[in-house]
Amino acid sequence: MKKYIFLTLIVCASFRQELKGQQFGQKEILQDLDYLYESLIEAHYDVYAYVTPIDFRSNYQRVRNSITKDSLSLLETTNVFQKVISAVNNGHTEIDFPGASYGAYAHSGGTVFPLEIAFENGKSWVRKNFSDHQEIQVGTEITHINGETMQAILANIYPQVSAERTYFKNAKIEMYSFPRYYWQIFGEQDTFEVDLVLNGTSHKIILNAINLIEGYEMKRNEVLNATMTLRIDDTAAYLNPGNFSGDEARYQRFIDSSFVEIKKNQSKNLIVDLRNNGGGNDSFSDYLVSYLADKPFKWNSSFTLKTSQFLKEHTRKNNDTTQIFFKEILRHDNGEVYDYAFDAYQPQEKEKRFHGKVYVLVNRQSHSQSAVTAAQIQDYNFGTIVGEETGDYPSLYASQFQYALPNTGIPVKVSKGRIVRVNGSTKSEGVIPDIEIQDHLLDEKDEILEGLLDRLNHN
């Protein structure tokens, strides 16, 4: 099932524009570019948190001056706009990967680069091989593609990716996948000359492109694959809550039933897996944490919002303004930053809660609310964090809202809020595990879980 999720979404997306060869005129694009730049400044919580006003404007002018053609395709236009929004250096302020264009390309029989790549310690490693060269093993270092160093290739991709730092940009490229991004920047190619390090020596290999659908998408699974799972053995109960989104009643039923089973089996150790998790809503995560907590808790130490005329107009058109959250947006003055307080969440009744040792697994693909939740558990000492540093910050600019650019209709996501983790730290870093174990290659070999189980079995 997972193999089809991304492809189904992009093929079913509104890519008919692309199939019909729709072009946007230069005037339309420039108008939308100006609208994007100005709306980011007005609506973002703090657009200059990670970039200076001079650098942000210089980048915008540079991108604007690069638009010299009379018209651009949807893909070309998306690429242009991403270069402006990514300069904010905020992972939650973004224009998504161009799925509509990718879907149209897939539908037309397109091909892609046949290797998925992981980025670790400044090097690029093969994490999946879909080519017909089986001598290229998972874990092989790749140094060049078509004569370009991997560093140079990534430097071309980075302006399309919104993130606070290189570590997170690399994680997002892994998440969406390198073959997709390589196509986005370099287009369709029939063959690739690849430089690899095999058995300690450099080798050049010519790889053929593979069919996007049958050769790639139908054979792979997404990196973000959090799925509701409960397993119990003699060492520990293993609980993956899935993403913090979707059918909330169903989610709560799963959490409730899981802790009934965990209690029935008298498990002394509980492993909560927040890896490869896309995040979601605090109401989901707090419900999980209520089974681990021994006192009332919050998911942040501070949650503030900035309102603006732009946000107010968007709110009136798109939200239920009888709700307190949206009422507050409308009530405050334009440009005002204000606190939005959350009540403390109560733990479950004592007999329902888990009273053993809790371990929470994270990796660089623990995104958004999953990173915030790991930090919450760490800061309250509700559990021990195990794995590698998250790509996302637990103190971050988020609380996204989305609007479309007026001429092209391209969706834009912007952070209107600022979240500070429970312990009040605003360091520019992810969640740092208490026990560090690297998730090498993000592949089927589970170094983090196996490493933790080995520790538990030897204690």
From TrEMBL:
Q: Which domain of life is it from?
A: Bacteria
Q: Where is the Tail specific protease domain?
A: 250-437
A GO BP entry is: proteolysis
User: GO CC terms on record?
Assistant: outer membrane-bounded periplasmic space
Q: Name one GO molecular function term.
A: serine-type peptidase activity
Pfam families assigned to the protein according to its UniProt record, in alphabetical order: Peptidase_S41
Enumerate the PANTHER family for this protein: CARBOXY-TERMINAL PROCESSING PROTEASE CTPA, TAIL-SPECIFIC PROTEASE
Question: What is the recorded name of this protein?
Answer: Peptidase family S41
